[in-house]
Amino acid sequence: MRYFVTGATGFIGGALTRELIKRGHSVVTIARNPAKATDLAALGVEVHPGDITDKETMRAPMTGVDGVFHIAAWYKIGVREAQVAEDININGTRNVLELMRDLKIPKGVYTSTLAIYGDTRGVMADESTPKPSHFGTEYDRTKSAAHFDIALPMMKAGLPMVIVQPGLVYGPGDTSQMGEAWKQYLQRKLPMIPDGATYAWAHVDDIVEGHLLAMDKGKVGERYIICGEPKKLIDAFRLAQQITNVPMPSFTLNAGMVKVMAGIMDVVNRVIPLEGQMHPEQLRSLTATYIGTNAKARRELGYNPRPLAEGLRQMLEYNMDSLGMKK
Predict the structure, then answer these.
(1) Is residue 65 part of a domain?
(2) Domains: count for the chain
């Protein structure tokens, strides 16, 4: 099969692309600078110049493919360039899905997220959970708009697509803020851990498998939460300490204290634009819960993500090797 993959230079998209090649499929993708995607080209991936925010750059690469995996997204939290989230997550998604419709691509898989429901406040979300009225971050808001206002209506109008919704994705090669936090922990440079944030953790290889199952077995018009095990952030670090014998930071930040700080920084941010760890978005994300159930994906797709303890051990050992640390 021949697949068009957006976000192939990223964490999830790169892992999916490598697995597709490994299984004997051919992959076509776009990159703003193809010269920086030589690792993909070396695998046999067709890399064309393009950007999901420029619809016409995708038309030729998408023409004639058997399926589309739309994974590309803007996922940064606590930065000033919030308009970029709108351009990529909303307008870029519209471009990809409209082209998929116009070119009559047989099937597509769109990567949404559990974050479309915002802070679930300890409640397990499922595929029927409605769109909330408030969001803590621009990532949550823009991904929710793409999901509820673009993808679902287009599927209802006949677009042959399946939606998958990961939670927090971890694993080797993760360049996100969470991925950097794990490296800082191993180097004993992580200053503190917030006591309050809870995520549904899934290893990147399981998320890739969830995408492939959705393409092969997913029912057109359906959405599947492919998150993993719910676990508080502080408990995940306790687990890491058991695995590595590297002590976790002794200082924990109370959720109530973080919320107060977020409120103060909201006021400051209106006067002096903030960025990074003290941005109110970043602080709010440290008290939120993003959890859901993957029961539907297990039942209908045969999805079976590994336990956090198993996946975390694999990722931490990989990171320790890359940092030159003794296991």
Answers:
(1) yes
(2) 1
Entry pTM = 0.91
Burial class (CB in 10 A: 0-12, 13-18, 19+), 19: middle
- Contact between 203 and 172 (Cβ < 8 Å): no
Residue 119 lies in domain: 2-174+199-230+290-307
pLDDT one-digit tens code per residue, 102-144: 999 999 999 999 999 999 989 999 999 999 988 878 889 999 9
Which are the contacts of 274, defined by CB distance < 8 A and separation ≥ 6?
78, 265, 268, 280
Contact 161, 100 (CB under 8 A): yes
Angle, CA of 65, 70 and 72, to the nearest 5°: 130
Higher-pLDDT residue of 42 and 277 is 42
Q: CB pairs under 8 A, 24+ apart, for 51-54?
A: 51/92, 52/6, 52/88, 52/92, 52/93, 52/95, 52/96, 53/87, 53/88, 53/91, 53/92, 53/95, 54/95
